[in-house]
Design brief:
Number of strands: 29
CATH superfamily: Peptidase/esterase 'gauge' domain
CATH class: Mainly Beta
Helix content: under 10%
Oligomer: single chain
Shape: globular
CATH architecture: 7 Propeller
């Protein structure tokens, strides 16, 4: 499922799409080893993420069983690129950095495809208004966040035909979009007039809808499937818990793996949810949840922590494992093979 990822556990304040990634030497190019992150997977089993080159520059990558990890490079005149999402036809959306100064980053959006290569979409909201993309659907619509006036941050929906549309807020100053489905429904978090920050669901027909449970001080939606089922995180007695929301049932707490915290990052069209949970021994483990099985621990492989960031309709899961050497590596998990290290192509026990 195509989306961006923001992890809301103590182990990582934010593992946004393309945040941390280093990969090793492979047939398509040279990358540093043992610090990679896979952030999305499509229904063809192609994986997108970000990787650092030997000169320590971040590059978006595309992985498939046939090619391994492929360096997508950077747009012309840019210095770094970050993979964010991938559609079922193999288009990759990401962000590119033109320059880095002490307090500012010049950033814009790109789309890569096998036909066109890397295409720079420029500054979607105009000069001086950085755009952070949360996801792209099959129609090429983008959802994300950008300051409309250079100060406040607002969620947006962008399409190739109509340009950028400000989605507004729930009555407060800021909003952030983190996911979009095929129908163009957008999810994220928005500030209300009471300064609370709540999960929202937006559509062209209803506008921005508050889906925060009554009395909850903070919640945020991270993913949505084509049936309009929403996943995210909310605060419960000072702890973060994963949730599943539907229009018919409202918000359901998905629980934990025995610890105090959990966070959901994505949902597929079968209603399976992935994310990360703290265990009873205070470690962070990737999980897969379904209505029939509940929360399943995907384990640590050979690492000290694992985080699931995306899932496709076949139930394949991608994310990252924190290694004992201090880095991380991208993984692909399936029920039949278990967890595979995408840097080496080997199943990790």
């Amino acid at each position: 499922m195509q989306k961006t990822t923001v992890l809301t556990l103590g182990v990582a304040a934010a593992v946004a799409a393309g945040t941390i990634a280093l990969v090793l030497l492979n047939s398509r190019g040279k990358f540093l080893a043992d610090t990679s992150a896979a952030v999305d997977i499509n229904n063809a089993g192609q994986v997108v993420g970000t990787a650092k080159t030997p000169d320590k520059k971040s590059h978006a990558f595309l992985w498939s069983p046939a090619t391994g990890m492929r360096d997508l490079g950077v747009p012309k005149d840019d210095v770094e690129s970050y993979g964010i999402g991938i559609t079922d036809d193999g288009r990759v959306v990401g962000s590119a950095v033109h320059s880095r100064q002490r307090y500012t980053i010049a950033e814009h959006t790109f789309v890569w495809s096998p036909v066109t290569g890397m295409r720079n979409l420029g500054e979607l909201n105009g000069p001086g208004h950085p755009v952070h993309v949360g996801g792209m659907n099959t129609a090429g619509e983008l959802a994300g966040v950008s300051p409309p006036d250079g100060k406040e941050r607002h969620a947006f929906l962008w399409s190739p035909s109509t340009g950028i549309h400000n989605l507004g807020t729930l009555g407060g100053k800021d909003s952030w979009a983190s996911g979009i489905n095929t129908a163009g429904q957008v999810v994220g978090m928005a500030e209300a007039s009471n300064r609370g920050r709540y999960a929202f669901l937006w559509s062209a027909s209803t506008g921005m809808q508050d889906i925060n449970p009554y009395g909850c001080p903070t919640s945020w939606a991270t993913g949505i499937n084509d049936a309009g089922q929403v996943v995210g995180n909310y605060w419960v007695k000072g702890e973060n818990h994963a949730f599943l929301w539907t229009a018919s049932t409202g918000m359901q707490d998905l629980g934990t793996l025995g610890g105090t915290e959990s966070g959901a990052t994505d949902i597929n069209n079968a209603g399976q949810v992935v994310g990360t949970s703290r265990t009873s021994d205070k470690k962070y483990h990737a999980f897969l949840w379904s209505a029939s099985t509940g929360m399943q621990d995907l384990g640590l492989a050979d690492g000290i922590a694992s985080r699931a960031l995306a899932i496709n309709d076949a139930g394949q899961v991608v994310g990252e494992v924190s290694s004992n050497q201090g880095g991380t590596y991208a993984f692909l998990w399936s029920a039949s093979t278990g967890m595979m290290n995408l840097e080496t192509g080997k199943v990790v026990k």
